[in-house]
Each structure stands twice: as structure tokens, then as C-alpha cells.
Amino acid sequence: MHRFKQAFIILLTMMLFIVTGCANSSSEETSQTSETNSKNPPDPFGKYEEPVTIQIGQEVDPSDTSLPAGDTPLDNQYTRSVKENLNINVEHHFTASPSNYDQKVSLAIASNDLPDAMIVGPVELRQMYEAGQLEDLTEVYEQYASPAIKRILESTDGLAKKSVTFDGKMMAIPSVQLQADGVHLLWVRQDWLDKLGLKPPKTVEDLEKVAKAFVEQDPDGNGKADTIGLSGPDTNNKLYANFLESTNNLYGFDGIFSAYNAYPGYWLEGEDGKPVYGSTLPETKEALARLRDLYDKGLIDQEMGVREDSGESIISGNSGMFFAPWWMPYGPITDAVNTNPKANWQAYALPLDAEGKYSPHLSTPSSRFVVVRKGYEHPEAAMKMLNNLLANEATFDPSKGGPGFYPLRLVFAPSDETEYSVKALREVLAGTKTAEDFKDKPEYKLLVSDAEKIKTVKLEPYDKLDMQYWDPKADLGAWTRVYALMVGGTPLVDQEMNGVYSLTYAQTKTMESRWVNLKKMEDEIFLKIVMGAAPLDAFDEFVEDWEKQGGKQITKEVAEIAKQ
Length: 564
Prior knowledge:
The chain is mostly helical. 39% of the residues lie in helices and 9% in strands.
């Protein structure tokens, strides 16, 4: 429905299917079935001499028809790789569709009828730990995690490990996703700025001036009053990201909120050191007041909240600014450039706050976890499967059964992949490094390919990133990737960030029954305030109602989590 979010999913899939120098360790064997007790040193890729069976819970999408005739969720290119390389047989304890998977996991936990391994979210992880259902994976990780997986977890500065550590024990294997996906940059039509003699807006006041000029001074030169100063969220997106959905919010106002040091949707440490919910704080009310004023002046898209796809106004050339992550060339920007090759979209880590700092909210690096039931004889088998996944996934053909059919598949990407790639490609453009220099970094899955292709689409001078210094027609796919990195990633490297994390990214017990209604109330009243359909003081009523309807109890529960 929302094709630009679909484009991002395609981006993630590409990152998992292009890699250079992947290791295939299928020839390595151990001396006995369980390497845990083997006399040989533990081998992350070691093949069991005798078959090992692992029963899993798996999410299987019945609408996914990508499997070739004869293949099944238990017999496909990936499960055959697991069998051939590791001598592991995968069996199903249960399967569920994507919409029912979490419910099936909850039922398994409640009944204590558990598979040997499965993927869970943060709420289920904590429930299983408190119920004593989890195998301690501390030694399994230390002995059997591949060097590449260890480097990926280390890229989070300890946050990934912290998310699965209870009482000093590592109780699960965490996914790792890009930190850059949680930073919502300001994308601006630089050619419009240049035409009107304007500079990128450093403050919210500057942003208002630029938006006003974009609306009133006909920057597209068509003689019509049809331009939008700042795009807003469509029906598929939100005013801001939140602790449960902390990344990839398109066309929201995350950047304006952070300029007021407001972090609605996040759990923060209050002045007294206790947790507070950002949506209930005065800074959020102040930011809402400013957004309300901008909307009232016609500087924000007047169809925000009801428009089906804000990307269409970017493609058509009507919009001048929007907030979104670094990867937007994978979305509407490529189509916008195809429509108008002179459309010069540039990204900025702006606006700044009153102290001149850029302080965006940041996402959790880990949101899904592989757990192993307590007592399973071969806990290292799950770790080996993850090693095999990272090392070999790029060799599989997604048209013959995509990632949805890969048992225990987690997203593994270095938290700093975007920033690292920008720095590396700068070295390639400067002539101090070549693609060959990065072949020992398989965890940066696209880097070698990026380094090989960047000079095909980047014109000299290499330090200039405006659209006139690119050649998309030379290789549109390569251009999309490296333009996203060099234009969308450069602000993440060059701008000092004072990032703000949420105290938690997981639901508490009371949230399970109350949060849907609380969040709906919040979303509705905030949107009405911005659009002038409710008075600004409705914010104060919201805070009172939020506390009465479960917010106060939830805050106490978050405080308990924060202590751990």
C-alpha cells in the first residue's frame, strides 16, 4: 500500500543478498555430535558428525508464493544449506502467520509448551526469563558466535548485549539494526534554496522562513500556487516515531520536536531521576504549539493526516521539505529525479535546538531475539544457524524462497553501517582505498559492491554532492544506493549528535491491555491540536486522562525496568 516503505524493505533485502567474500565453512567437522562437550576447540561453523534436530516456532506467510515447486518451509534452499553445512535438521514445533505469530508465541509461553528455539520480542523475552524458561547462552555466544556476528554486536557499544542480559547472563541472541534508521533528517530541495537565495534552515525560525518562501515565491517556476513548504505525515505514518516503533517514520515532525528537546513517544529520565513519558511534558506542548502555528499559516501540507501518500507530492515536484531517514533515495527521491533530473534533494541534520545542538531521538539496535528453551541439548545449534545465515544468505536466490522461509532469521547489520560506509567511500573517492581493502569486512554486506561502483555514477569533483555531480543513468541501482549513503549518510558523519534513547523499547504488563487505547487517544488529540481542530489546552486534558487511564501505573512499571 505504501510503496516507499516497501522500497525500504527491498533495500534491507538487498543488503542481505549482496556480499563479497562470504565464507562457506561446510567442510569443517567436529569429532562428535555435541560440540559443547567436544575435545576439539569450539568451531562456529563446525559440522556435527551425527544429525542434530532442532524444533522451532516459525512465522510463515501463507501469501508468500516465492518457493519453487516441491520446496516447503522446511525444505528449501536455506534449510538445505543448514543441513549440508551443519548437519542440522529443522523441524516445526509450531508455525503461524505474521499476524498471529506473537499470539502463538504467547500461548507457547503460557502453556510451557516450547520449541527448542524461536524468535520473540522484548516483552516475551522478559516473560520467559521470569518464568525460568530460557537457556543461558553466555558461554554459547562466547564460544560459538562467529567473529562477524561478534563485531556486529560490538558495533552497538554494548546496547545489543544489554538488551538480552539478565542478572549478568546472556539469555538470548539479539538482532542488530542500523542506528541511522532512527534519525529523521531534513530533506530539502537545494535547487529551490539556490533559486531563492536561501540557506538551509538551521533553526525552526529559519525553517518557517524557508517554508514561507517555498509556498509564496513559486520556486518551481510554473506560475501556480501549488507548492508545499513542509510535507506532513500521510495516513500510513505518524507525527513522530515512538519507543515501540522508533525507526523509519516518513514525513513526520520528529526533527521539529527534537529542536524543542521534546521526545513524545519516548520514555525519558525526569529531573528527579525517575521515568517520565515524553508525550506528557511541557516541551511537547511547546512543539505542538509551533506546529499548530506553521499549519495555520499554510506552511505545512494542508492535506497532512488525510493524504494517502505524501511521497506523491515529492515525486510531482510540489514539496520543498520533509523529514525522513537517510535512505529516502530508495523511496520517492529516485522517482522525483526521474521526473525532473534537476531536482536536487539534499539532507541536513537540522534544525538545531536553542543551544545550537542536534539532538535527535535514537532507536534501539535490537528488537527481535532468538531464544533457546531451558534444557535443550544443543543450544549451540541455534548459534551456528545464525552464523550460517550471516555467512551464506547472500548466496541464496530471493526469487526461490525469500528470507521469510529462513528458520531463526534475525536482521544482522552493524549499527554503524551507514556511517562506516560513508567514510569508506570517501576514501575510495580520494584514491586512498579500493574495494579490495574492504573484503575482510563481510558484515558490511554492500560495501565492496558500493566501492566498486561509486565512480560509475559519481562525477568530479568528488566532494560535491549536488545533483549535477551525479549520473543516475549510468547505473540507476548503484546511484540510488550510493546517493542515499553519500547524501543521506553524510550529515550523520559530519554533524555532532546528542542522541536521546528511550529508557525502554518494550511494553510493560499494563501496556498489554491499556497501551493501544492510550496511544490512540494521544495520536488523535495531537493531530487535532496541530490542525486546529482542538485547542492547545487540550494537551493538558490529555495528560490528566493519560495518567488516569493507566499511564501512572505504566510509569511505575517502566521505573522497575529502568532499575534492572
